[in-house]
Task: structure prediction
Amino acid sequence: MNNRMTIKDIARLSGVGKSTVSRVLNGEGSVSQKTREKVEAVIQQQNFMPSRSARAMRERSDRVVGIIVSRLDSPAENQAVRAMLPLFYQQGFDPVVLESQFEPCLVQGQLRMLAQRHVDGVILFGFSGLDEPMLSGWQDKMVVMVRRYAGFSSVCYDDAGAVNLLMDKLYQQGHRHISYLGVEQSDTTTGACRYQAYLAACRRLQIDPLGALGELTYQYGYEGVAGILTAQTTALICASDSIALGANKYLQQRPLPHVQVCAIGNTQLARFLFPQTLSVDFGYGEAGSLAARQLLAQLNGTAEVRQFIIPCHF
Result:
């Protein structure tokens, strides 16, 4: 037996990551048969066996938190998660990232699985359709992003504040024909909150509203913008960076008078592709860091359940 070999060595020889080797050693099912056979062949060739003391140490120190995102391809959620991970690693926690795809039934199944595996805590990116009974039993070891639930800690963004920042800025610049491209109001935050804030600002500033609501996608931004542009339109507020990317692409391809496009989010991709867009920074990284710190404090018994709203800014 080669006592000097480590999991890192087996991973290198197998061409996989250390976590994959660990899953093979622990008999976990989340490894393809082909990969499992390749790793097991290297283990056999090297006569490798992890020491009992090392395995016992890992088992004693095994602390896990679940992070349930709504979409793995969401730039906003990715920014928040990237800010969480270093804090969990520093405290010896292994994060497990899952995707809900905006399906309440998936969240319920994921929470059952996490409970069965005795994870220490969960950060959940909330969405319309999830209700408090679905989260029962997690009150003291969960932080919810984006939405509020009674009895749960939450970290939310200032949806109405972001729209008001943009409307006031545009009005000060002389814009009086400001269109809005948003999300269906069945979505409470990105949809209803932001659209209602736009309508309220139009009333406050005494300008005529012109808006359309659809999906939270680049494609909807590209296809939907034509319906809310008039000869007088000088500015357009998009409810998200994703929608703004599509709208900007549409305007870029057509010889139209200049329209100031505005967005909520200020993600890196949007800044790179269309730097002329007027964006409100929601503080995704700050929100992720705050959520992780709150969950860690709850798990350590040093914090009560709290609700936070992250201030937005240009």
The CA atoms of residues 62 and 125 lie 24 Å apart. The longest helix spans residues 188-205.
